[in-house]
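Late entry, evening session. Most of the bench is empty. Finally got around to the prediction I had been postponing all week. Sequence below, unchanged from the version circulated by S.P.
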Amino acid sequence: MAILHPAQVTPSKIELVQSWAPQQPFFKGDVAAELSVIASFRYDDPQGEVGIETLIVRVPEGELLHVPVTYRGAPLEGGEPWLIGTMEHSVLGSRWVYDAAGDPVYIAEIASAAFSGATEVDQFVNVDGVLVPKASTAHAVGTGAVVRTFAVPSPGSVSTSFDGRATVVEAGDLRLAIVRRISEQTTEALRGYRPEGAEAHSIIATWDGQDRPFRLAEVWER
């Protein structure tokens, strides 16, 4: 489960994404457009060190972006290419926010969820020591059915590239294709990344106002 804290966060998540996303190769449209988060879900770092959140971000005129991020209490070794920015959290202190595609903890957790058929984790807000449930605004599930737990790859093994359709991640023996612009065409195109004969599984998600599942990520082993 994910435990959240009532807190002041400066700058806010969307402010960081607002400054970062228009600079990315997957972004199309007005770079000055005001973005908004319409839904999100979380995964859990078993070590309790890294926050893992997926943001569904709306661009004016309707386009949706898939922006998974991680939150860390210290810089990720070798993580400069994926650094979105830093924020000050009134409870947790300084937080380093990364594009999760380059974060080894996210890679291991998304792979484990995809192969195991796991869902997003339940969220609770710690209010004066009492854990209050927080409803998710999005739901995700892996397409696999056999529990797998993947080890966290070494930071030096991670590389990413955007090929016009998805961010392709290489991390040791793991391979991921992560949709950035959400549409029927881009999410269905993920099937094309599966090597012939390889076992591959997906993360599919729905959110408030979107009952038809979209495929957000494809995972396989080299």
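Two things to note before I forget:
Residues 2-221 form one domain.
The longest strand covers residues 210-221.
Will write this up properly tomorrow.
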